Amino acid sequence: TGAKAFSVAGGTVYDGPVPEAFPLAVALEEVGCQLLKPSLPFCSEACGGDAVCVADETCAAYPKPQNVGVLQVTGLVAGAASMEPFPPSFAYQSASLPHPPCVEGEEVALGADGFQASASCVAPLIVTNEAFVVRRDRALELTWEAPADSDQTRILIKLDVSHHGGKKGEIDCDVPDTGSFEIPASLVTALVDLGLAGFPTIVLTRTASGSSAEEPAVKFEIVSGVEREVDTGITSCIEDAQCPDGELCNMDKLVCE
Hints:
By secondary structure, this protein is mainly β. The protein has one helix spanning 185-194, and strands spanning 10-11, 24-30, 33-38, 51-55, 58-61, 71-74, 81-83, 92-93, 107-112, 115-120, 140-143, 154-160, 170-176, 180-183, 201-211, 219-229, 249-250, 255-256.
């Protein structure tokens, strides 16, 4: 989106899985991609502020963040980064790191009292598309610079064209990091047919991950993400002055109509 690239380490350790506050269900699936649509469960009794409705008449409590002491990330070009938790959320975040913070392919490790995890450093993701045109009956071709070893990483894709209009759905993909991928026209058409809203985006993320042998639910990820604007044929807006003559800004969808 034009923001300057940066690197930082951070995260939170919880005492259980985090339930989805806005669950999505698979509507269509094809070649590593899924079209996901909202699947909002109903709970006749309110779950309260400490829980969320995750299935019909089923509430799940939000997990509690944990203080696991000082976290250390090693294998960085600037040396180890130590992080202490910030109460009461016990969130961990390093100071700004050099960018890129590590050397592609080399091991980076996360450690604390009670668990260790490691993953291979990923190269900064460089997306080479000049534009992202989303239309019915048209596949969306994506290109980026491939890494030195594509077996070590994956590319995650999220295409969301209705976020500001009361989210109708999204396309999520998990594909090989080969330098190119095409989201099938069938999924693009189905997503567009769910509805469009202003300021649509696509996010591509290169990722490598590892888990702790001591605490398998603790996941350590090294990611490089890029967000870009998408052309769906609509004019996005936050005020009428941004719209062509004869159109006004629909503030519910942030679209000129």
